[in-house]
Design goal:
Elements (H helix, E strand, L loop, with lengths): L5 E6 L2 E4 L5 E2 L5 E2 L22 H7 L16 H7 L10 H13 L1
Antiparallel strand pairs: 1-2, 3-4
Length: about 110
Amino acid sequence: MNPRRVYRYCHVHYPMYYFGYYSIDETGRKVTGWFNINNNIKLLRINHYFTKSKEEWIARRSIGKADAKDRTKTRTMQEFYEHDNNDIYDASALYYSNLLNKDKSNA
């Protein structure tokens, strides 16, 4: 996504582009909505989580919602419980984290 081509955001995950511009996935297909089902991830993967932990949630919830017009509204603990899906340990990014840390130590 090139931010200079974005007209406005309908949602934090859904930019509206100027006429003639659009998002594409890594296969070159046009992304037409806020979500793209692409199971062929070879070039880039972004793991996007709602929150890290209950402790982090409590510390950050006073910031407010990124997609709310009124950023002064505080998120509730009920929202945490509705989105707390840390049921499965996902170590898929550790490989890349280790590579980055290795590069840092060699610099």
